[in-house]
Automatic annotation (TrEMBL):
Residues at the catalytic site: 110
Positions with a binding annotation for (6R)-10-formyltetrahydrofolate: 66, 91-94, 108
Annotated protein name in UniProt: Phosphoribosylglycinamide formyltransferase
Marked site (Raises pKa of active site His) residue numbers: 146
Cross-referenced InterPro entries: Formyl_transf_N (IPR002376), Formyl_transf_N_sf (IPR036477), GART (IPR004607), GART_AS (IPR001555)
PROSITE patterns reported for this sequence: GART
Main function: Catalyzes the transfer of a formyl group from 10-formyltetrahydrofolate to 5-phospho-ribosyl-glycinamide (GAR), producing 5-phospho-ribosyl-N-formylglycinamide (FGAR) and tetrahydrofolate.
GO cellular component: cytosol
UniProt keywords, alphabetically: Purine biosynthesis, Transferase
Pathway as given in its UniProt record: Purine metabolism; IMP biosynthesis via de novo pathway; N(2)-formyl-N(1)-(5-phospho-D-ribosyl)glycinamide from N(1)-(5-phospho-D-ribosyl)glycinamide (10-formyl THF route): step 1/1
Amino acid sequence: MTKDVVVLVSGTGTLLQALIDAIESGAVDARIAAVVSDQSGAPALERARRHGIVAVAHPLRKGGDRAVWDGELADIVGAHHPDLVASAGFMKLLGSAFLDRFGGRTINTHPSLLPSFPGMYAVRDALEAGVTVTGATVFLVDAGIDTGRILVQAAVEVAPQDTTDTLHERIKTVERQLLVRAVREWEKRES
């Protein structure tokens, strides 16, 4: 049975594109019901529109009430009746109003082998720690910061000459593969 997915984005949408490509090729039996961004100018919104996907911007206004914004986000997502919500490069924490409605069916990608290096600077933190292996994770979102149940992970070796940018690019390639895998495996788990 085809699953409806709402994808949350903030940036260019390369994770989104990986999922679109997998769906269009038949590798994943899902439909992206909508793409929602916290950034009005996010290139991912145009990327979605080019594929005929509903694209909605819902920025948090400077000085705006975070809890109100979170409730509005939940309403926007809820209007599309998703079986699964995929946070794919979405750079805002999801609050209680959102998780009350979509907890247990919201996944997120992260550029490290969680529980190591949670937070916004995972790639930098891995390099500063001197690890020789890091990676990518897809996990079930909970109220903590990158603390939810791990669904899939893959390792990425750290090269001696790596910078934050070069390492992050290799991790992003793995993140895209893992997001597709997590959505495909979600279908099996939920069917």
